[in-house]
Write a structure and sequence with these properties.
With 603 residues, the chain is mainly alpha-helical. It folds into 4 domains: 129 residues, A middle domain of Talin 1, CATH 1.20.1420.20; 113 residues; 144 residues, Orthogonal Bundle (Cytochrome Bc1 Complex, Chain D, domain 2); 142 residues, Cytochrome Bc1 Complex, Chain D, domain 2, CATH 1.10.760. The protein is 50% helix and 2% strand. The longest helix is centred in the N-terminal third of the chain and has 26 residues. The chain starts with a helix and ends in a 5-residue tail after the last helix. The relative contact order is 0.08.
Length: 603
């Protein structure tokens, strides 16, 4: 205090020097972007345009505009949505579901009720082609769409978004494009998805530019902008879904963009969003080794995998101690060389009597919400106990089995070492078995090698088959790459079921009467005769096919799909979710698709 009174000018000069010195140090540092106002402004801008175009389309409908005009306006509307899709899907997923979700009812499983579909895909069904008797219904759906647009505005006015969330949303969008977008999941009738992808990519590019600093602008961002320009150039040259070269475009363009995004993240020092994700945060592409996190599908943290759990689960999987009379193990019906199926049309009971359904593969079942063909169990823990206690399959008693395990010195030691308990418990037995099954997803196929950069891993015929699989045959609309099952990317929060109209056998004369998931939801018409969409990985090892094993070869399966499923074949399937339109695949094209599917076999 005395110093200040005696030397006031000196103190002032010293403080001034320190202040400007600190300020200079701060300005020498690279700026940090915390203000995401521009990002929100761009969302509002696109949403305002979306609302305007929706109202314009309503006006055209009221004036009885012709089919071509309505379709052109609708395509413009979809492209505008694609610019902001990354934000709506991430921050407002429920709104997104009713703006651009499948034209199928949303099911409230606990209440056993259906919620009617709405949004862009419903509109697509109504205007390809447009029939004037649907004028009032189309107007009603468009009006609902304006309400959803207003919801976007209201929500983004009040929610706070952070840079790490925005980056996570953009990364998810690239993965969405690489799976749903590239397959035409949300344009199943018009097939205009290749025309829309540039708008989705531009939405990513614009937002990256808004959140970038000098750290990335001359490095990864510059490369990302260049790669997006290259990708868009290819898409603009050829937007024909039947001739597009998907097998080249995905690894050489989309995978490069997703890889560069991780570099951008590192340069910008963006932290991970602290939520469990099915896609590992350090996965540069869908096809990176260990890209998928099986722990995202476990019931709780204590159920997470470990090498010790996998080893113990493998041993118990082959131990007949799990059955009532020590006559059968899990491995009896799930044979490793057959991709953990049994090769029989129907599973066989303990008394050697055929059961109602075919034994499904356990490979990649870790990445599904819903086990068994009818999805009656949520997870693999529930699946294991259901089989063990089923009187026709293993007829075991979980408490009796645990008692036997606790009398075995080695098993007791193994469980104690893993779970730190004196005695094994039922949930622990379920968990080690489930952990072993989760380990069966190895992602070691020729297809994976090709997507990781080995151009010689697939034959020319297999490459043609993949292009057909994604394009003309529309297989990837239900079997989403890269898991090739019905768990919906990029969040993987839901596994879909489908109604295909499967017949009793490949003669396709009589419908199979198995209610599937509908057995547990009798009042929900949409779920009757529906079954989980399984993975196609290792599919050539798992004959015979379908839930009833009625199709002996993949050729028979492909002929069924080629004709438009059960409904296309003339069977009565009012709630079929598979399109009943014929695919018009030639014999040669079918053979190429089947050859491609052999590239999905793990080594």
């Amino acid at each position: 205090m005395k110093f200040i009174l005696k030397y006031p000018l000196a103190v002032f000069l010293i403080l001034t020097f320190v202040f400007f010195g600190i300020l200079q140090c701060q300005t020498d540092q690279k700026p940090i972007v915390n203000d995401l106002t521009d990002v929100k402004k761009e969302i509002f801008k696109n949403n305002t345009e979306f609302l305007r175009q929706t109202k314009e389309m309503m006006s055209l409908v009221s004036k009885d505009a012709d089919n071509k005009v309505l379709q052109e306006k609708f395509q413009q509307l979809r492209k505008t949505y694609k610019k902001m899709e990354w934000a709506v899907e991430y921050f407002l997923p429920n709104t997104a579901r009713f703006m651009n979700g499948p034209a199928l009812p949303e099911i409230e499983m606990e209440e056993h009720t259906e919620i009617e579909p709405e949004g862009l895909q419903v509109i697509e069904e109504m205007i390809y082609p447009y029939e004037k008797q649907n004028k009032d219904e189309l107007t009603r759906i468009l009006k609902k769409l304006t309400n959803k647009s207003n919801t976007i505005k209201a929500n983004f006015l009040v929610i706070t978004i952070s840079k790490d969330q925005v980056f996570d949303a953009l990364r998810q969008q690239i993965f969405r494009i690489s799976s749903l977008g590239i397959a035409g999941f949300d344009t199943p009738i018009s097939g205009t998805f290749l025309e829309e992808i540039p708008f989705a990519l531009d939405g990513v590019k614009k937002t990256l530019e808004q959140i970038s600093t000098e750290n990335s602008q001359q490095k990864s961002l510059k490369q990302i902008v260049s790669e997006i320009a290259k990708a868009n150039g290819i898409l603009k040259k050829n937007s024909n879904k039947n001739t597009f070269n998907y097998i080249d475009f995905i690894p050489n363009h989309l995978n490069k963009i997703s890889s560069l995004l991780l570099q951008f993240k590192k340069e910008e020092n963006i932290p991970d969003v602290n939520v469990t994700s099915a896609l590992n945060r350090n996965a540069s592409t869908f096809y990176s080794k260990n890209a998928f996190n099986p722990n995202a599908f476990v019931p709780g943290k204590e159920f997470e995998m470990s090498p010790e759990k996998v080893t113990l689960g493998k041993q118990l999987f082959s131990d007949k101690i799990l059955s009532n009379n020590n006559s059968r193990s899990c491995a009896t019906c799930h044979i490793a060389v057959k991709a953990f199926t049994d090769g029989l049309e129907k599973s066989m009971s303990l008394d050697n009597v055929a059961l109602p359904r075919n034994t499904p593969s356990l490979n990649y079942s870790a990445f599904q919400h819903g086990q068994f063909w009818d999805m009656r169990k949520d997870d693999l823990e529930g699946q294991s106990s259901d089989v063990i206690t089923n009187k026709e399959e293993m007829h075991g008693d979980m408490n009796m089995i645990i008692a036997k395990i606790n009398k075995d010195n080695q098993y007791q030691k193994d469980f104690a070492k893993i779970f730190k308990t004196k005695k094994a418990e039922v949930w622990q037995l379920q968990n080690v078995l489930a952990s072993y099954i989760r380990s069966l997803a190895t992602f070691s196929s020729d297809f994976d090698d090709y997507m990781r950069g080995n151009d010689s891993a697939m034959t020319a015929k297999q490459k043609k088959g993949f292009n057909l699989f994604v394009g003309k045959a529309q297989c990837a609309i239900c079997h989403f790459v890269p898991l090739f099952n019905g768990t919906v990317p990029p969040t993987y929060n839901k596994t879909e079921q489908e109604v295909l109209g499967v017949a009793e056998n490949a003669s396709n004369r009589k419908i199979d009467r198995d209610l599937g998931r509908g057995k547990f939801h009798e009042t929900v018409a949409f779920l009757q005769n529906s079954f989980k969409t399984p993975t196609l990985r290792n599919i050539s090892k798992t004959a015979p096919y379908m839930h009833n094993g009625g199709y002996k070869t993949l050729k028979e399966v492909m002929n069924f799909y080629n004709k438009g499923g059960g409904k296309g074949l003339g069977l009565a399937v009012e709630n079929q979710t598979l399109s009943d339109s014929q695919l018009n695949l030639t014999e040669k094209e079918i053979d190429e698709i089947i050859d491609f599917m052999s590239a999905l076999n793990d080594k």
